[in-house]
Amino acid sequence: MNDRDHSLRLLPAGIDTYSHPVVYMHADCHVCQAEGFQALTRVRIDCGKKWVIATLNVVTGGDWLSTDAAALSNAAWDALQPAEEAWGQFSHPDPPAAASIIRAKVYGESLSEGQFGTIMKDALARRLSDLDLAAFVTACAGGGLDIAENIGLTRAMQAAGETLDWGDRLVLDKHCVGGLPGNRTTPIVVAIVTAAGHLIPKISSRAITSPAGTADTMEVMTPVALDIPAMRRVVETHGGCVVWGGGLQLSPVDDLLIRIERPLDFDSDGQLVASVLSKKAAAGAKRVVIDIPVGPTAKVRSQAAAAALSSRLEAVSVAIGLELTIQISDGSQPVGQGIGPALEAIDILKVLRCAPGAPADLRDRALTLARLLLDMGGGAGVGLNKAKDLLDSGAAERSFMEICEAQGGFSEPKVAPHRIMIVASRSGIITAIDNRRIARVAKLAGAPQRARAGVLLLTHSGDWVQRGDPLFEIHAETPGELDYARAYAASQPAMFRIEEPT
Questions:
Q1: 10-44, pLDDT tens digit by residue?
Q2: How far apart are CA 460 and CA 484, in angstroms?
Q3: Which residues form the Pyrimidine nucleoside phosphorylase C-terminal domain (predicted)?
Q4: Distance in angstroms (rounded) separating the CA atoms of residues 151 and 141
Q5: Is residue 140 a part of any domain in this protein?
Q6: Bridging pattern class, strands 69-72 and 22-26
Q7: Is the peptide bond prior to 448 cis by the omega test (within 30 degrees of 0)?
Q8: CA distances from 39 to 23, 85, 373 (A)
Q9: What is the 3-state secondary structure (H, E, C) of 374-422?
Q10: Which of 36, 167, 294, 412 gives 20 to 30 Å between its CA and that of 209?
């Protein structure tokens, strides 16, 4: 049998499967029949000196794909970068070494740092399917990682990518564990800390389960998909940046795991700690502030849960050489007005510009976190006054704009074309706002994929409202998404608890 018997012409499918390589073959394809390939089979494709392992999707009808060709998803095409009219060789890949390790973890065995390293290596080489990665993520959830394993996983995630070296300079960083709509403090903190002359190369993620991540929000205003040389130029010149970690190869497995966690709609304490701290260490940070919002509808729901997470963060950070300050904050309701990338960007700019109507809660939280970082940077006891001075004087805004220009230019956020107001159904005092439900409204409106979609919050807990007063406004980029979000909001009367005073 010659090589041609296992070859197919390679075509671009033009299908975005995120970072997961997928190959499409016709059911009557001779390679499928000869090799016994079926839907979801893992297939190795060699083209020249490059290869990729992709998941097979079988085409059973239509005439868009001939039997002598294979179509590659964007991720598979980018991995192989085939020339025009290129042919690929198709075969069964060797079983991944990580498969038996994941199976052992599923059955409750403890893993070593080396075993976690094998999983990271196979994940990066795309030898593991989404089902393999989902099994791994699930096995590590719900207390599935003890502290020793958490340390091993964190080290393995960091070792799988690059680690930046900033010499003997002190590098600061900040992270919020999430679960609180709005609360986009990071860009404000970076602006204040860089204006104070400190180094803070901020590597941010896109949203996992929320309507926006810091990278999603920053991308409304400036490019965030920088490579390491470009990021270094920004930081060396302006002291900081806010960039997306997906293109930097800093703890690169984290983005693969996030892709699995997003449809599962959870991230466990152990994975969260490994994700956050491996990226901080990889970015070269030495001193880090971690914000943990606590509330009945936040990600962390009780003081006991916050204490457990704090203990895990501290134990792992000591082991990998990071100094942490942990801030337990109020997570009982959203922070700011905007929920969704563009709306949160507008809030950030209002605070930086000290504009009338800037959300006071967002400003206060950002100042608190900036104060903690400035204190860690060597000015213990004077951080808050210094942070306020830098914000009120306009120095922080200037620093932020310089960073945006250096990252590729600044764009003013725009508002969605389709909007509808949701009003109070009764009079009284707002005593609670459900974080998860209001976040779901924003996601159903299209956030974060549609940057201008989301929710503009017009009231907070403690406010008095009359029946018919505005509670929030839904923003969407299409009428269909607006109707979808509005219908959900109408079905959730308990999203805002309004009580008459006693």
A1: 999 999 987 789 999 999 999 998 888 999 999 99
A2: 24
A3: 429-496
A4: 15
A5: no
A6: antiparallel
A7: yes
A8: 10, 25, 51
A9: HHHHHHCCCHHHHHHHHHHCCHHHHHHHHHHHHHCCCCCCCCCCEEEEE
A10: 412
What residue has token string 């690169």?
252
Cross-strand bridge partners of residue 325: 289
Say if CB 501 and CB 484 are below 8 A apart.
no
- Which token pair is 356? 């009338």
Q: Let me know the angle formed at the C-alpha of 152 by 147 and 157, rounded to the nearest 5 degrees.
A: 125
For residues 189 and 365, the answer to whether their CB atoms sit within 8 Å is no
Q: What is the CATH number of the domain that holds 367?
A: 3.40.1030.10
Sign of CA dihedral 396, 397, 398, 402: positive
- 238 within domain boundaries: yes
In single-letter form, the type of residue at position 299 comes to K
Phi, psi (rounded to 5 degrees) for 167: 70, -140
Task: Enumerate the β-bridge partners of residue 42.
Answer: 55
**Could you say which DSSP state residue 461 is in?**
T
Same domain, 375 and 495: no
E-strand stretches of 225-267:
240-244
d(CA 214, CA 333): 19
Least confident residue range of 3-7, 225-229, 320-324, 461-465: 3-7
Which residues are tagged catalytic? 267
Helix (H) or strand (E) holding 447: none
**What is the helix, strand, coil percentage profile of the chain, to 5?**
45, 20, 35
Place of tokens 């970082």: 373
CB atoms within 10 A of CB 17: 18
Both tokens of 173, joined, read 């960083």
| Tens digits of residue pLDDT in 347-370 | 999 999 999 999 999 999 999 999
The position carrying tokens 């997906």 is: 246
pTM summary value = 0.88
* Segments forming the whole domain that contains residue 428: 418-499
Beta bridge partners of 65: none
Give the CATH number for residue 44. 2.40.40.20
